[in-house]
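FW: tagging you since you asked about this chain on Friday. Here's the raw sequence from the shared folder, copied in full. Didn't touch anything.
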Amino acid sequence: MSRTERDLVAALRAELAAIDPSRDCDRLAEAVGLGGEAAAREPAVARLAVRLRRAAGASAAAVDPIGFDWDAAAEHCRTAFLRGRFLARGSLSLAGGRTHLEFVVPIVEAPILARRLADVELPAAWRLRRGRGVVTWKSGEAVGTFLRRIGAAGALLELEARQVSRVLRGELNRVLNAESANLQRAVAAAGRQLDAIAAVDADGRLGRQPYVVRLVADARRETPEATLGELAERLELHRSAVQRALERIERLAEREPAPVVADPLA
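HL: got it, structure written out here
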């Protein structure tokens, strides 16, 4: 990730760590979610763990995250628990324009956490990696929904704005590249057409072509930069008629002119 992206992730985590649950049950749930790993994370998360355990009492330290009574917990308690679990075991990557969030947890916890996330309509994949369980989202929409649910509103707005900006830049580049390619093809086609017109005009064959073909040839010579549509509009013809006329001239130029046979009686 770039420094800007790392700063954004740090701001998001700091925003989550600054949330002060209003209910005692939420403080307990978040403290359980933090588990015993929070002290090894950034200072804001370590301070949060101390603050929550003081508020929740000794009972918070006695409950392992796996033992959290998820099924009996209220929705707000589940949200607080997941916020704590993300702060303790979660990571967010924005590298390469892709949003990737994962929890690295003990192997036994991975399927349990995946089931809990599915219960709140945020299904995630899980796998084993170097002796740990990894629960993952690779969908930007799922990541955004989760972060919004656990309270990262401010940083998430910045994240979404950056994603929109990145998509717009990509779309603009795609359009510009397509326009550039179209322009290059149009310039090459106009060059071929001008060469063909010059060739069939030099040997007199252009003068023997139908009126529309000669009209299109003159217009192309006068405005070599014009598109087929612009030529058609100028001549008040259908675009297909202009294209057929120019294709006819190019075919003529590819063929050798018929030899001129001398009149024996001349």
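FW: The CA atoms of residues 230 and 249 lie 19 Å apart.
HL: agreed, and Strands lie at 90-93, 100-105, 125-129, 132-137.
FW: great, closing this out.
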